[in-house]
Amino acid sequence: MQKKKFLATYGPIFFISYIGSFILLVTLYSRLKFPTIWGDILVKKGGFILYLPWASSLAISLLIVAIVEMYRFTKRL
Question: Less Cβ around it within 10 Å: N or C end of the chain?
């Protein structure tokens, strides 16, 4: 698959799911306290918590892109 076609097909899905999962993970971290993975930034100082889920958002968005592609593939059958 060519690079431009690949980005045109999967780029918007990836971008939207990355931003959405980033916002969702930042919002839910203070309530759920789920474990971080390698690549996430977590800073706890006193009552202040800073959580930046770079890698977790990447993993979730790649999973969403794979699910969407599997759906498209099964829809063609």
Answer: C
Cα–Cα distance for residue pair 77/75, rounded to 1 Å: 6
One DSSP character per residue, 20-58 reads HHHHHHHHHHHHH-PPP-TT-EEEEETTEEEEE-HHHHH
Residue 42 CB neighbours (<10 A): 12
- pTM, rounded to two decimals: 0.84
For residues 62 and 49, what is the distance between their CA atoms, to the nearest angstrom? 26
DSSP annotation of 65 reads H
Residue 77 DSSP symbol: -
